Amino acid sequence: MVDKEAWDEPVYEWRAYAVRCRYCGAEYESMSELENHMMDAIDNDDYNHGSYEVLYRNEQVDTIHHEAETHEEDIKEKRWVEDTAAYDETVITGYTCSCGATK
């Protein structure tokens, strides 16, 4: 007997997906891209782009499958179960012609 159906449990993990310049809000997928952004700003005598933040999101990284929880029950008595009601069947065992011939 099934007590609890099988089910899948998603597993999540916080993962970094980008870095953002705190001054202008530009987002980059890697630190090297952000560093290029900062160096370009410095080359233009703009020293405001030196601060950044790492952006995270909760991503599904795995799925744990849980089998159904079941148990067996002892049968203490036998019971007859009627699947189909009883009926009489006519079985043809031969044919008789009006002339008397049989088959």
Automatic annotation (TrEMBL):
Name the UniProt record assigns to this protein: Uncharacterized protein
Organism, scientific name: Lachnospira eligens
